[in-house]
Write a structure and sequence with these properties.
Length: about 850
């Protein structure tokens, strides 16, 4: 709230002065100034795309717009000034001012009403993804400005007319449908000219084109012609997948037209398969881009791959309404389009995969990861203030990807499915081809329910953190429940209430009874509990749809620690494990007791999703929370349990889960010796084959345990590794595995130089091994310099690098000394950037808890 009010004030004061320097990127004030001044925006773009990857792409843009009065016009073009050629404003040659990646047309050159600015330029390659035989644009979130002069903000939607001159043997596809080749002069020799029809209004981040050598498949579904562009050379693979891909799109489109009551809005419908695409998909209107390898599947594709493909297709198709038809006003609301796309995708796809336990999948995919940030002092709200679009990358993280979907399910549960759908219909209709904020939707939903959606949104969306719940159960003299109450508290002492609908599980021998509860205030009496027989345990988040720390009452905690595996239902069992882990972190359960429960329950767990979750909890507790003595006393049983799991696993993937947990926790002499024999291929595990990456990890785990032959193992693994990328990576990480502390210190010192940090996955693997729990005493010396580097890492690295660097540095540490180093660092840097402070605090959370 505070941030938003302040930002509003800031905007008004800046808007008045249009002579102040603009600065790089797209600051809020510039976006607001342009949004207020510019109307009826159209781009007429032309690019000449040469076949040679290094030859420049030249372009020309004619930008037409209306002004209410003469006004300076600031274009974004993040390229050196010498890439701008001739500029004409309203037909007159003009010399624009160029500064900080902007091209500024002075107010005096403009006129009231219609204006036209024509600019010739050389496009930057930054967002053109140029390959030898093809290129594709990817402008999200604000990267169109690298390719052509534009207003690179989501709320200046424009109609685009595009002409591409491409090599004669190439195909071209864009948002609009292709027109004939008539008119417009002739292309250069060796080129052909492709013209595209004017688009519906689109923001810059959804404008796209692809050109290159592609094959095209065409199909008609429900009267709509669809095309699929691809570069797959295996004809059988294409034949095997094409109908499924067209069918999945057709089904998603008709489902969405039905749900939203709005027909698909962008005319033609094409999809383009890109080899090694950065994301799984990108929702450019009328021309969706996909990662080719996750769409064109092998015959051996698993159920999970099929589900992922169907979900991705439904997700991108849902964006045609959520994001493309109605777009967020500013990137602080980017979470909305992502949540809605996922939300719709689940509704569209899940019924086609009845054999998957979707509720359990949702729980395990979202709750643990969301809480990993939200329970910490580094928690951030879903909706954050964003001062400049150049910082948009920093908004992405578990709070957007994992917490927001939980929040949206709660919203639908509060409103009811039909009122929720009708509210979305109204929202899409009212803002079609325009922009809206989260608060615009909140207002619509608020008018459709007696509930207070605005108050709900404040706690869930605008504020950070999560609630804590306590259970109070009173039993009468006959052993029956007199009352069952849940009390909600705000651990950050703001008095917030997070209204939510949950199902409270009461456990009885061989059965679970679920009671619905609407938690709308501080204390909620669970209706329907009174008079029931006293249960063995109460699990407030029984169906896994609630959100917060659910502190178990004493009797339930003791029962679940001893009998969690007796819960008959996999979803309730999964929720019990998530709750037990939360109670461990809240210091309500001793780590030893937790590990003992996991070791006892694991052999009886029948659901693979739960097995994987428990194994990961076991590994983390083993290294982070057990004392040295506790670890030693359990070594034998941990290793025996995991070895038996490997033997018992029914499938390769089950065996691999058990084996990986074994590999990561083994410490006994005999246990490590067995791992070494497996690595040497002297020992085979029936039903489990290892690929090169598995052997590499084994070699690393053996080295960090300093087996006598560690040097020989690393050397042999380097020679054994065939794949050149993996070989280079292994050679890079090797010094971080050395038993010689001096070599490890040099391995760390390399990262002071930005050139040695370019390959981020290699760096992260090195840092994680340098700070491995077995080496944490020596590694204390790396913590302070690693934190000192963080600001530079943010400036030079990819968007997820600061968080991953912090996690890799701190995840192996559990000592009070290192906790003090982190606290001291933060105390000495009171002016430290807020988002980076959150990054450190969330990475250090488990260290602080373990050190306590
Ligand atoms: Zn998306």
């Amino acid at each position: 709230m505070f941030n938003i009010l302040l930002a509003g004030f800031f905007l008004m004061t800046l808007q008045a002065s249009t002579t102040s320097p603009i600065g790089p990127g797209v600051p809020e004030a510039l976006a607001a100034e342009r949004r207020a001044a510019i109307q009826n925006l159209r781009y007429d773009l032309r690019f000449i795309v040469p076949a040679e990857r290094t030859a420049p792409v030249r372009g020309r843009v004619r930008v037409r717009f209306d002004l209410k009065a003469p006004h300076r016009v600031v274009f974004d073009f993040a390229q050196p000034a010498d890439r701008i050629g001739h500029v004409a404003v309203n037909g007159r040659e003009t010399k624009p001012q160029i500064a900080d990646g902007h091209l500024i047309v002075p107010s005096a050159a403009t006129t009231r009403g219609a204006n036209e600015v024509e600019i010739e330029f050389v496009a930057g390659d930054d967002a053109l993804n140029r390959n030898d035989e093809f290129l594709y644009t990817l402008f999200v979130p604000a990267r169109a400005q690298f390719a052509f002069p534009c207003f690179d903000q989501p709320d200046l939607k424009a109609r685009y007319t595009l002409t591409l001159d491409v090599p004669e043997s190439w195909q071209a596809v864009a948002n609009g449908r292709e027109l004939g080749e008539a008119g417009q002069g002739a292309p250069p020799p060796g080129f052909k000219r492709v013209r595209f029809a004017e688009t519906e209004p689109l923001p810059t981040y959804l404008f796209a084109f692809v050109a290159g050598k592609f094959s095209v498949e065409t199909a008609t579904r429900g009267g709509r012609v669809m095309r699929m562009f691809h570069r797959e050379t295996d004809a059988a693979k294409v034949a095997r997948n094409r109908d499924a891909i067209f069918d999945l799109h057709a089904r998603a489109l008709s489902w969405l037209e039905d749900y939203t009551a709005i027909p698909y809005a962008f005319g033609k419908f094409d999809i383009v398969m890109i080899p090694s695409f950065q994301f799984s998909g990108m929702e450019h209107a009328g021309a969706i881009l996909y990662n080719q390898s996750s769409q064109l599947l092998d015959e051996s594709a698993t159920q999970n791959q099929l589900l992922d493909r169907a979900s991705t297709i439904a997700h991108e198709t849902a964006h045609m309404w959520f994001g493309d038809l109605v777009t967020m006003q500013w990137f602080n609301d980017v979470w909305m389009k992502e949540v809605f796309a996922n939300f719709m995708a689940a509704k569209i796809v899940n019924p086609s995969f009845p054999e998957v336990n979707h509720e359990l999948r949702f729980l395990l995919a979202h709750y643990p990861t969301a809480s990993q940030v939200d329970r910490t002092a580094g928690a951030n709200p879903i909706r954050q203030h964003l001062a400049n679009l150049s910082e948009a990358g920093q908004l992405y993280g578990p709070i957007i990807y994992q917490k927001a979907p939980i929040v949206m399910r709660q919203l639908e549960a509060m409103l009811g499915e039909q009122a929720f759908r009708d509210g979305l219909r109204e929202y899409l209709k009212r803002y079609a081809f325009g922009n809206a904020t989260w608060l615009d939707l909140v207002r619509i939903l608020d008018s459709r329910t007696p509930q207070n959606v605005a108050a709900w949104s404040r706690a869930w969306v605008e504020e950070r953190g999560r609630p804590e719940f306590e259970t109070t159960i009173d039993v009468d003299s006959r052993g029956r429940i007199a009352s069952l109450n849940l009390t909600m508290a705000d651990p950050l002492k703001r008095g917030l209430i997070w209204p939510q609908r949950i199902q409270v599980a009461l456990g009885y021998p061989g059965a679970v009874r679920l009671l619905p509860a609407a938690l709308d205030g501080r204390v909620t009496a669970v209706a329907g509990a009174a008079g029931l027989e006293r249960p063995l345990y109460v699990l407030p988040n029984g169906a896994g749809v609630g959100y917060g720390l659910f502190v178990l009452d004493d009797a339930s905690r003791i029962y679940l620690l001893e009998h969690v595996e007796d819960i008959p239902d996999a979803l309730t069992r999964g929720s019990a494990w998530v709750t037990l882990w939360d109670n461990l972190l809240a210091a309500r359960i001793r780590p030893g007791a937790f590990v003992d429960a996991a070791l006892r329950a694991l052999p009886r767990e029948t659901d693979e999703q739960n097995t994987q979750r428990i194994l990961s909890y076991l590994t983390r507790t083993f290294w982070k929370y057990l004392s040295e003595a506790e670890r030693q006393s359990r070594t034998v049983i941990v290793e025996r349990t995991l070895r038996q799991g490997i033997d018992r696993g029914a499938t390769q993937s089950q065996k691999a889960s058990w084996f990986n947990a074994y590999r990561d926790t083994v410490v006994s002499k005999d246990g490590v010796a067995w791992l070494e024999r497996v690595w040497r291929r002297d020992e085979r595990i029936p039903g489990l084959t290892f690929a090169e990456p598995d052997e590499i990890t084994m070699a690393m785990e053996l080295a960090v345990r300093e087996v006598p032959s560690w040097q020989g193992i690393l050397q042999a693994q380097l020679e054994r590794t065939q794949n050149p990328d993996r070989k280079a990576r292994f050679a890079f990480v090797m010094p971080a595995l050395s038993a010689d502390p001096a070599v490890r210190e040099q391995a760390f010192a390399r990262f002071q130089n930005v050139e040695n940090r370019r390959r981020e996955p290699w760096v992260l693997e090195s840092v994680a091994y340098l700070n491995h729990p077995l080496r944490q005493t020596h590694a204390q010396r790396f913590v302070r310099p690693a934190l000192d580097l963080l600001r530079e890492i943010r400036a030079t690295g990819d968007i997820f690098f600061p968080q991953r660097w912090s996690d890799a540095t701190l995840s192996g540490h559990a000592s009070p000394e290192v906790a003090d180093i982190v606290r001291d660092f933060l105390a000495r840097n009171p002016q430290y950037p807020e988002r980076l402070r959150w990054t450190i605090l969330s990475a250090a959370d488990e260290l602080f808890r373990a050190a306590r």
